[in-house]
């Protein structure tokens, strides 16, 4: 299995043709920068190896606990985290859910401690609804094309990781045979 350093190197090197390709596709500097940035983010921090104690995981620093349930939930190198088609969708969904819950927790603490509202189940449901509402407003406030390019970048950054893993494993088994 390629090391974290190899994965980083592959990500950096492929960022260049990615930027060129994005510019030819979009003819837009802003979208090119966005897609290349999310590709780097997908390869370095938002990639498949968040399912284990990896460079991607530790790069989140004090925020790495956000990924702790993800790491515990999915086995390392399973289809859930390394699959080419759905694993990025799953991470985006997971991250959105965690961010919504974190926002709800902040809103709950504010409602109870600052506004002096009762700390009960109703309050929890209300703050959760408000957090969900804020998140969906955020999604709608940004142009669909921007989300699409951002997602393609994320997906490609993660896909290069999976492909490097596959190539690494194939080479390893080849050398074992000879
Ligand atoms: Zn991996």
UniProtKB/TrEMBL annotation:
Membrane-crossing residue ranges in chain numbering: 9-25, 92-113, 146-168
Upper classification of the organism: Bacteria, Pseudomonadati, Acidobacteriota, Terriglobia, Terriglobales
Protein name: Putative metal-binding protein
PANTHER family xref list: SLL0924 PROTEIN
A Pfam family of this chain: DUF2227
Keyword list, A-Z: Membrane, Transmembrane, Transmembrane helix
Source organism of the structure: Chloracidobacterium thermophilum (strain B)
Keyword flag Translocase: no
The keyword Membrane is assigned to this record: yes
Superkingdom of origin organism: Bacteria
InterPro entries linked to this entry: DUF2227_metal-bd
């Amino acid at each position: 299995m390629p090391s974290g350093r190899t994965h980083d190197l592959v990500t950096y090197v492929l960022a260049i043709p990615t930027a060129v390709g994005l510019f030819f596709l979009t003819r837009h500097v802003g979208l090119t920068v966005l897609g290349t940035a999310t590709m780097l983010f997908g390869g370095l921090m938002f990639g498949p190896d968040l399912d284990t104690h990896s460079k991607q995981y530790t790069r989140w620093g004090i925020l790495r606990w956000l990924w702790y349930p993800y790491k515990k939930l999915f086995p390392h190198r399973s289809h859930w985290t390394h699959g080419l088609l759905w694993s990025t969708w799953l991470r985006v969904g997971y991250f959105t859910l965690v961010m919504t819950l974190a926002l709800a927790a902040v809103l709950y603490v504010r409602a109870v401690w600052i506004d002096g509202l009762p700390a009960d189940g109703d309050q929890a449901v209300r703050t959760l609804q408000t957090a969900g509402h804020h998140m969906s407003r955020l999604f709608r406030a940004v142009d669909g094309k921007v989300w699409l390019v951002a997602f393609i970048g994320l997906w490609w950054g993660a896909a290069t990781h999976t492909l490097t893993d596959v190539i690494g494993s194939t080479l390893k088994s080849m050398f074992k045979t000879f």
